[in-house]
Amino acid sequence: MEQICLNDVLQQFDISMNISPYGNGHINDTYCVDGPRYILQRINTSIFTNPAELMENIENVTAFLREKIIASGGNPDRETLTIIRTKDGKSFYQADEQNAFRVYKFISGTINIEDDKTPEDLYRAGKGFGHFQKLLSDFPVEVLHETIRDFHNTPKRVEALKNAIAEDKAGRVSSVEPEIAFALGNAFWADTVTKGIASGKIPVRVTHNDTKINNILFDQDTRAAVCVIDLDTVMSGSMLYDFGDALRIGGSTASEDETDLSKVMFDTNAFAQFAKGYLCEMKQELTAAELALLPLSVKLMTYECGIRFLTDYINGDTYFKIHRKNHNLDRARNQFKLVADISQKEAQLAEML
Ligand code: ADP
Ligand code: GN1
Ligand code: MG
Questions:
Q1: Within a domain: residue 113?
Q2: Fewest CB atoms within 10 Å of the CB: 65, 154, 197, 323?
């Protein structure tokens, strides 16, 4: 990255303007350009090892969404991502083996909602993600590449944790015994969704797979959900991944980075509001098995994310961006506190549904 001049990269897209770092993503390097009119992103190719397949997915999905948005009288430049092509017509620029860049139109007049979310925002986020999934319900799932293998295969995430513990690359295992005990002690229900998919009880759909609330842009005036972004992990999966992952952050009373665990609780009203918005769009599509597992999905996705943070900490912080020492460990503890709280409230959530 250091050796690459971002202005040279922009020339490949016929753009030459001011660039500054942007957003709070954990994976890609994001910059806003000129005003801002564009988003420039360096795709994280150690995580997304095949940027050509990844961009093919995004081209196909955004083209499909574009048509539907136009047909319903919406504004496609605002309601889905618009890829800016390079001068030679490609959807991304491969500067060298490690460095792949893409440019999107900047969607202006929008905000990210993170720590200041209200119950109404959760309702709107539910509608936004539900609508996205509904629009893609007749997208031909077989054309999608699997950009990260077994991304939400929770039992495989548990295996990855066990491997990390066995290897103890960074010499950190002895300092995280309580967290490991929690993670492995809860692994017995981690296969609920994967088993349901394998047996055909839970249908496979086109899913986003990374529905944290900062992956949706909201209108800065009305706070209506405008556009679902961060389409790198759109693949086939269960809707339970998207529902659960959205509430993992959206339903927490604190941010994922909060270290004062007394502040980290699950807000049942946020669940009710998100579910209301989501079901407004998706209720007709869902099976009884999916509906019954909505409360569990939140616990499952929070648990999975917690073990991913813990695994990354044990491996020496090679996956998620960190901004301080022990950041991944703090995030894992935060997620595990939330799992414990969701467990206590699961029956209440089912009742609310
Ligand atoms: P990451 O995979 O690293 O999370 P994202 O694609 O989510 O990267 O982008 C990071 C942030 O950049 C988003 O949370 C959002 O604030 C901003 N962003 C991304 N794309 C756009 C866009 N087209 N218009 C406006 N803001 C955007
Ligand atoms: C990453 O890319 P971003 O920041 O939206 C991660 C998600 C995690 C999330 C935890 C491709 O999301 O799976 O749930 O961090 N994305 C990828 O905050 O691994
Ligand atoms: Mg993101």
A1: no
A2: 323
